[in-house]
Specification:
78% helix
Length: 182
């Protein structure tokens, strides 16, 4: 009975989303209706992936996809409504930020806590996206190429830090005294 109620709520939510999109598209005058529809399409794909994450065995993947598509849809909606005045050519590094943020819900749902196994890659994607946004928005007076020529050793060191943190985080999951399953 709970499953049927959950499905009714889900499909009611989808119906209300479609109804809201229709009313929104009808009320817009100077905003591209196609861009609004595209943004809600991403949100709907994310909602469908969320249902798959609940019902299927490979739920961490579908929860990641769900979170990723919902974030993209919300970003595209804000860009279409001109709340965020940047183009895709300027904002493409946000895809990395969204991927990092989308890694957090599967880790939280799986372990009911934030784990290094999910947090370190998530932070790495977020930092990478923010780093690339600095160059994409031309917030610094030099190019990415010039930065790489001068500062590539720092990037090597940062990759090393990420690998060390991952090894420390995965080392906590082994039982004391090492792996006895051999």
């Amino acid at each position: 009975m709970r499953r049927i109620a959950a499905q009714i709520v889900f499909f009611s939510g989808l119906l209300l989303m479609m109804l809201g999109i229709t009313f929104l598209l009808g009320s817009l005058t100077d905003i591209s209706r196609l861009s609004i529809f595209r943004s809600f399409l991403f949100v709907i794909i994310g909602a469908v992936a969320a249902v798959f994450s609940i019902n299927l065995a490979n739920w961490p993947f579908y929860l990641f996809v769900s979170s990723f598509f919902i974030l993209i849809g919300l970003f595209l909606f804000l860009a279409a409504m001109r709340v965020l005045p940047i183009t895709f050519s300027q904002s493409w590094p946000l895809l990395s930020v969204f991927a990092g943020l989308a890694l957090i819900p599967p880790g939280w749902r799986r372990y009911r806590a934030i784990r290094v196994r999910y947090l370190v890659p998530a932070l790495a994607f977020v930092v990478l996206g923010c780093f690339l946004m600095v160059f994409s928005l031309k917030a610094v007076p030099f190019s990415f190429r010039r930065f790489m020529v001068n500062w590539w050793p720092l990037l090597v060191a940062l990759v090393g830090v990420v690998l060390v943190l991952l090894s420390i985080g995965s080392g906590r999951n082994t039982p004391p005294g090492g792996d006895k399953t051999k």
